[in-house]
Amino acid sequence: MSSDKPPFDLKEFLRRFHIMIYTGDPEGDSLLIEDELKELRQLGLIDREEYIEALAALKNRQKKS
Question: Could you say which of 2, 14, 49, 58 would form a disulfide bridge with 19 (CB–CB 3.0 to 4.6 Å)?
């Protein structure tokens, strides 16, 4: 059974919080993004489900690199 839910767009998700990260180093970018996600969660700006979904999208992106 396939999900009707569109794929998670990490870049758009971060843009929602006015977060744009591009250092030219994909590994460095991933570390910075992970830190930002943790901070958004700690501040209560995103719920647990969004946090997990964003982390999964980040890990998926790292696998493709």
Answer: 14
